Amino acid sequence: MKIPSFDSLKVGEEIPALITPPVTRHTLALYCGASGDHNPIHVDIDFAKSSGLDDVIAHGMLSTGYLARMITNWVPQSALRSWKNRFTAMTHIGDIVTCTGKITEKFEEGGEKLVRLELQTNTAQAQTIIAEAVVALE
Amino acid sequence: MIDKKHIGYEFLPVTIPVEEGRLKFLAKTLGETGDIYTNPDAAIAAGLPGLLAPPTFAFMLEIDALDLVAFMSLLGESLEKLLHGEENFKYFAPIYSGDKITVCKKITDIIDKKEGALQFVISENTFTNQAGEIVAETRTNYVFNHK
Fold this sequence. Notes:
heterodimer; A: alpha+beta; Thiol Ester Dehydrase, Chain A; 5-stranded antiparallel sheet; 3 helices; elongated; B: Thiol Ester Dehydrase, Chain A; 5 helices
């Protein structure tokens, strides 16, 4: 991994995006087991219908996991200082999750050079996560 | 309506071993192929004590530590109304396979929106490893939709 230097980055610059394969029921079954999030709304269509939905919905944190991959493809995980995720819409079966991010601020704090990023996940229908992360670079 | 008397409620701390197999399974699920997330030998060769847990892993420990049914019962709510609103992380040190992480969870706020049609239950969580070092903190917003 070639780690970007603090000085080389510009506010407004985009980081390399990550686009996932379509979310399948199989994806959600695996994520249910691996994550420990056993809420049936993600894997049991009968339960989803009793919650007023037409079908199961993806775990919000699955898309957050994809966003994390985008970040750690770009910088080592040890650079990540903080990260806020707000879930703004549901992700459905068949959705392709597009993760994008851009630099919104460069600043110094606590003796570290920090870069603030605005991150998003989008499906064809909606923005599903709006997020902000802070990474430390040299 | 969720009673605001629950603000300040602290759950009993729970200690969870971080298993190598769990991290491999999670990496596979997320499409993560990096050696330090998937191959213990490569992680050790890279100077790490074990597989590196990915950035969202603290949330999974939070889930493991929480009995969701008991949580719903405490709040007088049902799972059908629950949505995940926000998940915020602060990172202080890595988590590796072989670690034992203690999760402390507290309800720090309950907020009514739209005259109670929506209620937010905010919890703050602290993750401490076997050396007594705080490795992460999270803030979770559970949304209850009463519409």
